[in-house]
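Inverse folding, one chain.
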């Protein structure tokens, strides 16, 4: 296990600069803090998630903390517009990526900045004692009042469990004593408890470990560190998959490759597109995956979902485009 000098974790070693857009009303009290970590390409998606929160929680005040390894001037301008239009505070943190380079990456489409959520409390403790972390492929569709004010029972984290088969596979592979495994896409974080447990420091000790040690990325690392010593949230706060049609959910989470910016299958996909349309970012018109070789995986998922909805023809169409685009991708044509 890797060890670090305590000075390594000083904020100045991680934070390159920050941009603040503060449009909170003077009377703002009990401000809810929500944090994201994204690269520049996903700032747009995090922005849409922010708007879904704002539109469904008009009785609350918010500060959004966006951690990234780079943010274009265009995205900074759009974030400023969100702050102005919805009367909230948005802070963008540009981080140095070097402190995260020792972490493993098993899947090429993931980037090192995903590990920033392991460091966030070190910066956010200057603003709040509690915050909600959200992935950028999420949408809020109901009130966050209850989860924001919940009793964390002295724990550092509240989060929802992964699906049963994932819990069984990951907990066994990682040799977790509690045989639990949570999804880190939505977490309520108590910063004093996090700091007391030295969770950041213990997480960073897994730098340099061989990728074969893990099945996932930072989610594996944080599960190894806390090993089930959290408050488990009900599924309504992290509905995995994005395919639900149930009404009693608070957070929809498009896990895996299927995302609402790539295709529209459910009314929740349509709802996400609505929040995009009212955002400062450009809208998206396609409702099927774009027929590019690099998107061949999307058509396999599209076909499976069509079959699950009784559309056999849609299933075969999806398989056709999956097969054809996969061949083109492999042949680089």
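Residues assigned per position:
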């Amino acid at each position: 296990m890797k060890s670090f000098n305590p000075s390594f974790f000083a904020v100045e070693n991680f934070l390159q600069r920050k941009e603040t857009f503060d449009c909170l009303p003077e009377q703002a009290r009990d401000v809810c803090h929500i944090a994201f970590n994204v690269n520049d390409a996903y700032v747009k998606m995090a922005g849409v998630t922010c708007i879904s929160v704002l539109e469904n929680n008009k009785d609350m005040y918010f500060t959004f903390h966006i951690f990234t390894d780079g943010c274009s001037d265009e995205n900074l301008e759009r974030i400023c517009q969100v702050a102005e239009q919805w009367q909230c505070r948005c802070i963008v943190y540009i981080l140095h990526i070097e402190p995260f380079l020792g972490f493993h990456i098993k899947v090429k489409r993931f980037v090192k900045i995903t590990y920033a959520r392991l460091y966030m409390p070190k910066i956010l403790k200057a603003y709040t004692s509690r915050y909600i972390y959200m992935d950028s492929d999420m949408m809020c569709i109901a009130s966050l009042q209850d989860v924001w004010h919940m009793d964390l029972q002295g724990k550092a984290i509240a989060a929802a469990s992964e699906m049963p088969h994932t819990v069984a596979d990951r907990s066994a592979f990682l040799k977790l004593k509690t045989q639990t495994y949570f999804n880190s896409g939505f977490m309520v974080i108590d910063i004093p408890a996090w700091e007391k447990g030295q969770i950041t420091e213990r997480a960073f000790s897994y730098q340099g470990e061989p990728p074969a040690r893990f099945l996932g990325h930072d989610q594996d690392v944080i599960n190894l560190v806390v090993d089930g010593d959290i408050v488990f949230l009900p599924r309504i706060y992290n509905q995995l998959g994005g395919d639900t049609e149930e009404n009693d959910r608070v957070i929809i989470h498009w896990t895996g490759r299927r995302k609402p910016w790539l295709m529209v299958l459910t009314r929740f996909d349509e709802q996400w597109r609505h929040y995009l349309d009212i955002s400062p970012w450009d809208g998206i018109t396609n409702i099927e995956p774009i027929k590019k070789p690099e998107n061949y995986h999307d058509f396999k998922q599209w076909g499976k979902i069509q079959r699950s909805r009784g559309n056999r023809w849609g299933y075969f169409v999806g398989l056709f485009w999956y097969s054809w685009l996969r061949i083109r991708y492999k042949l680089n044509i």
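The chain has a mean pLDDT of 94. The CA atoms of residues 60 and 145 lie 8 Å apart.
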